[in-house]
Amino acid sequence: MADPRSDDPRSNDPRSDDARSDGGAPRRGGVFLGFAPWIIFDVIAGPSTWKLAALTALAASLVLNLPDLRRGSIKLLEVTGIVFFAVISVLALVLDRHDLIWLETYAQTLSSAVIAAVALGSLAFTPFTEQYARESVPREHWGSPLFRRTNRVLTAVWGGAFVLIAVAGLVAVTAGRHGDWFNWVVPAVLLVLAVKFTAWYPEHVRAGARSA
Predict the structure, then answer these.
(1) CA distance 14 to 8
(2) Each residue's pLDDT tens digit, 30-55
(3) Is 1's pLDDT higher than 60?
(4) I need a labelling partner for 187 at 20 to 30 A (CA). Which of 4, 75, 171, 177 fits?
(5) Nearest Cα to Cα of residue 202 among 169, 170, 155, 135
(6) How far apart are CA 75 and CA 131, in angstroms?
(7) What does residue 128 show for φ and ψ, rounded to 5 degrees?
(8) Alpha carbons 32 and 185: distance in angstroms, whole number
(9) Higher confidence at residue 132 or residue 177?
């Protein structure tokens, strides 16, 4: 007789495939590696170092995503990173510094805004965290309401976090001596909160489903 749990994508039995795979949550290593080139860019980028930041982030994108490129399973965040840092690197090489003052000033804000747009835009199609979650969740659960809802929430949280980071970057431009708070402290706090939420929310959803 077939296991009835296999026909129920919302099964929350701790022994089930869903439970073993974090209930639809993306693998932490996968999604965080996807953000790594962007974090590298934000850490290195400055008025005199953003060109180095772009080239370093492009190299990181290619190296970290090489396994996915070989498998033909590259993800939205990875494609965006490669294209974004390639364009920034080309601009740095072919344009004069005078033509790139705006990019020097708003490089970090621009990168955060791009991530936010990609994350929130993916909600109209496939939430970007779902692409990572599928690597550890059996295919039969991909269409379940629990799986889809969990990843929509996680994607919205990450998108919202990067919207706030982009806004903080704009504020930092005019914040004078307080600029470091908005360039470094605020983004760090928001990223830590997003990471903690990503770890907490799927378990919260499963616990709620089990008690229902």
Answers:
(1) 14
(2) 788 888 999 899 888 877 788 888 99
(3) no
(4) 75
(5) 155
(6) 7
(7) -60, -30
(8) 19
(9) 132
* Cα distance between residue 29 and residue 56, in whole Å: 20
Are 26 and 151 in contact, with CB atoms under 8 Å apart? Answer: yes
Q: Residue 102: what pLDDT?
A: 85
CA distance 138 to 3: 15
* 182 DSSP 8-state letter: I
DSSP 4: G
Average pLDDT taken over every residue of the chain: 83
Structure tokens at 39: 């974090």
Q: How far apart are the first and last CA of the chain?
A: 27
- Taking the CB of residue 47, how many other CB atoms lie within 10 A of it? 9
Please enumerate in sequence order all residues whose Cβ is within 8 A of that of 96, keeping only pairs 6 or more positions apart, or say none: none
Look at residues 1, 127, 30 and name the one whose alpha carbon lies nearest to residue 21. Answer: 30
Higher pLDDT, 6 or 106: 106
